[in-house]
């Protein structure tokens, strides 16, 4: 018994070298009163017989708070529910929340704080690709574990990250196929904000349109983040008359883009539009009536009709008010704690290496989006859905794909 | 021949777009032109005063919707007036508490108002939530006017245009036809002399700053029809605003108008022929080149010593 009890610090002195000797000794004295901890935790994580500490790292302030608030709420909801049903391996989950403040160096600094000082067992966090890229080296160096909720451009795979949103090909290919088939679309106009996610997404879209659908891209335009004037662009669209406008405009630009489209008389009766960047969250700002009849491609919509989702929507509204909305990323963030729980229980341990090893193949049949499974490449198998915008700010699901394999490094699309 | 008429229609709409961008730029720059141009205060929180106007409109829109829906078609005019009052009042307080202590340290106003803008952004976030909200514009402001089958003119563009003309005219009248305007211009030219002849320069400063903020509030209210309303919405406009005022020549209202027109036309036209990002690069390059040759801006006039 004795040799096991001192295990966490004696056998893994690496943390001592980080200058936290005193803390570790106190921790060791705490550990000496444990009976359960050591089996489940051999790497000095903040795990006691009754409690496991996890980190939450999103922007609660700054420009990105608009988007990340939903993720913070969803992760808290999932953790509350897990705690209410008995926790993980008999332990309640305690959250240490840090604010990335929409600033990428702050994200890296807070990630290090969570992993080194708080010794959290896992982190649920980040939203933008920029913040993920900023924390990635920290997670790889300290061997932490990150659950990342946003749909993103792909071209990345790390041992230390589980991606619970869709990578670009999952989101794009099936929806382009659908719109080409049902609308007979041949000509496309690609529009995006000017940074990595829209550019990578449009690159994939262009290859698919030209090589697979044998259609034409009649225009491709990028606008700076925060651009608020889209008049010239709208005139160009009117001139080129594409069958489909394919859009990935984000942030404040998003609202301006759709309000001005509507004002210029471009609505769904005259123009088919498919977007990658509008969820229920964005519709709050845009206003449903400004986008009525346009399509969005996501893996989740709040209006999905299945028992899992009904329970999720109900629980979310009970906790955060009846007017709250749940977008794609909010749901993906909700999956994080549940996927982690399943992996920890399968591994019988909180150790990052063991949890990571146990993750591929983990299934979640209770996901609001239906069913997901973790792929070897740490992304999720998921369905893609097309939602049609309704005036009340919700989507009507008009198409649902088969389960799509995640492929973050798509051949022929780069 | 069909393509020719279509080309004509696009050209007409594109021309209108240029004018519309011009009015948007001018409207957002007017308040700053008063504060920066007339008072020499670098107000980095200008964008946040726009946001105050936007949120005022949003609140009034929500109130009207819940309490008296029959007001819906008319509330927007009240919203604009109220935005002017609210933003102006907050500006008045800000001048009294902060700016008035910094007149002899113009560069420090830059830092102080930058800090103020951060405080205000977080205040919006705490009060209204981090998410963007949407004010319901009245029905008559939505959609387009069809001049012919092919030419569609956005109604909110027309509205912003009208409002800009009205505001610009009003400010000109106030500055050049009223006693208060005389006092402002006198203070700009020579503060000590103005005080010596009995002008209460403190009061003039406070009113000028409040007026500038109020005008920003009006712009914010109008922009709810074309842009987003969120805690950081104001920061989308701040760069363009400074660009217009500095390029025009800080102390000249005519300069602001000319510069807004030049920038809007360059931007609108180049966007039609190249990608939005490249158009921005081109516009900024031209502005920098001209400023290199004419550092005082398009129209220079005397600045407060």
UniProtKB/TrEMBL annotation, chain A:
<dbReference type="Pfam" id="PF13433">
    <property type="entry name" value="Peripla_BP_5"/>
</dbReference>
<dbReference type="InterPro" id="IPR028082">
    <property type="entry name" value="Peripla_BP_I"/>
</dbReference>
<dbReference type="InterPro" id="IPR000709">
    <property type="entry name" value="Leu_Ile_Val-bd"/>
</dbReference>
<protein>
    <submittedName>
        <fullName>Amino acid/amide ABC transporter substrate-binding protein, HAAT family</fullName>
    </submittedName>
</protein>
<dbReference type="InterPro" id="IPR017777">
    <property type="entry name" value="ABC_urea-bd_UrtA"/>
</dbReference>
<feature type="signal peptide">
    <location>
        <begin position="1"/>
        <end position="37"/>
    </location>
</feature>
<keyword id="KW-0732">Signal</keyword>
<dbReference type="GO" id="GO:0006865">
    <property type="term" value="P:amino acid transport"/>
</dbReference>
TrEMBL record, chain B:
<dbReference type="GO" id="GO:0006865">
    <property type="term" value="P:amino acid transport"/>
</dbReference>
<feature type="transmembrane region" description="Helical">
    <location>
        <begin position="74"/>
        <end position="97"/>
    </location>
</feature>
<keyword id="KW-0029">Amino-acid transport</keyword>
<feature type="transmembrane region" description="Helical">
    <location>
        <begin position="157"/>
        <end position="176"/>
    </location>
</feature>
<feature type="transmembrane region" description="Helical">
    <location>
        <begin position="209"/>
        <end position="230"/>
    </location>
</feature>
<feature type="transmembrane region" description="Helical">
    <location>
        <begin position="15"/>
        <end position="37"/>
    </location>
</feature>
<keyword id="KW-1003">Cell membrane</keyword>
<dbReference type="Pfam" id="PF02653">
    <property type="entry name" value="BPD_transp_2"/>
</dbReference>
<comment type="similarity">
    <text>Belongs to the binding-protein-dependent transport system permease family. LivHM subfamily.</text>
</comment>
<keyword id="KW-0812">Transmembrane</keyword>
<dbReference type="InterPro" id="IPR017779">
    <property type="entry name" value="ABC_UrtB_bac"/>
</dbReference>
<dbReference type="GO" id="GO:0022857">
    <property type="term" value="F:transmembrane transporter activity"/>
</dbReference>
<keyword id="KW-0472">Membrane</keyword>
<dbReference type="InterPro" id="IPR052157">
    <property type="entry name" value="BCAA_transport_permease"/>
</dbReference>
<feature type="transmembrane region" description="Helical">
    <location>
        <begin position="242"/>
        <end position="263"/>
    </location>
</feature>
<keyword id="KW-1133">Transmembrane helix</keyword>
<dbReference type="InterPro" id="IPR001851">
    <property type="entry name" value="ABC_transp_permease"/>
</dbReference>
<dbReference type="GO" id="GO:0005886">
    <property type="term" value="C:plasma membrane"/>
</dbReference>
<keyword id="KW-0813">Transport</keyword>
<protein>
    <submittedName>
        <fullName>Amino acid/amide ABC transporter membrane protein 1, HAAT family</fullName>
    </submittedName>
</protein>
<feature type="transmembrane region" description="Helical">
    <location>
        <begin position="272"/>
        <end position="293"/>
    </location>
</feature>
